[in-house]
């Protein structure tokens, strides 16, 4: 019973803090977007850093989730890179913030996600403001989204670290059955611990970033040896992961093939290695590289962020209820998020405005 209550509290606070963060703390970015694109980017990244520290803190501080990281740990926070990862659960991108905060400069992390997530009040609004990349799973349209967003990051000299899940969906019973059928049709090895990757988007991503600068590709393998948070519903049932295990392998840009077709084959080879690595993990070792020491770096900032957001939610709700000005602010800003989201999305509008603003400044 206690674990169920804990799971419910995680979901409730996840939703409430995302609403509070976007409507109250991120809202100044609307003004910054109009007058200073650089300030717009900086403010949103700051809010992203602070809120994602809270999400990490919920697991590590309150529920003592242990994080194990091994392999090639990033050394340069300004590095421009692509992070490829197996997609074991729907929570992978969120839980990876525990590693991003420690080693990848989480404020520069941009995640490629399915398009419908942008419409979720609170968290979806925040992801739009952060210029996450939303896909419609139709390559003709997704190619345009990829290209325009990456051009924007290149033009503003932004050290983006882009997470892509080449499998396209998380590993579960239905997707695994589809994976078996796909492997049979194409005469491929049957995978039991991951899905065969879709490589078109990855190859295009590498090629596009190389036009300006790409430092490396990080191949991340994630595993959950005990409780697996397959979805939000599993959290509601109190299934909170005790351990998160990550193995990281860095490939310098110079090590990658030049041709897009060869890049696709390179990605497929990494997944074949990942399948073997995961089989060894789940059937024998329950650890990567024999690492049995949890990573506790940065714990203090997670504690501070957690305490801040736990306190700020009831304070914000109280002030919104009793303060007319704040109440109107919440209504107006929420309406703006809804309108902009269904028009084109703030991630698109902010890029359009940047080019308009920059072009106007050059003409003057």
Give an account of the 3D structure.
The structure is a single chain. By secondary structure, the protein is of the alpha/beta class. It has one domain. Helices cover 58% and strands 12% of the residues. It has 14 helices and seven strands. The chain has a seven-stranded mixed beta sheet, sandwiched between helices. Helix 6 links the parallel strand 3 and strand 4. Helix 2 runs antiparallel to helix 3 and helix 12 crosses helix 13. The longest helix has 26 residues. The protein is globular, with a radius of gyration of 21 Å. It starts with a helix and ends with a helix.
Q: What is the strand and helix layout of this fold?
A:
Layout lengths: L1 H24 L2 H8 L1 H26 L3 E6 L9 E5 L6 H4 L1 H8 L4 E6 L8 H7 L3 E3 L3 H17 L5 E4 L8 H14 L13 H11 L5 E8 L8 H5 L6 E10 L7 H26 L13 H24 L1 H20 L2 H18 L1
Parallel strand pairs: 1-7, 2-5, 2-6, 3-4, 3-5
Antiparallel strand pairs: 6-7
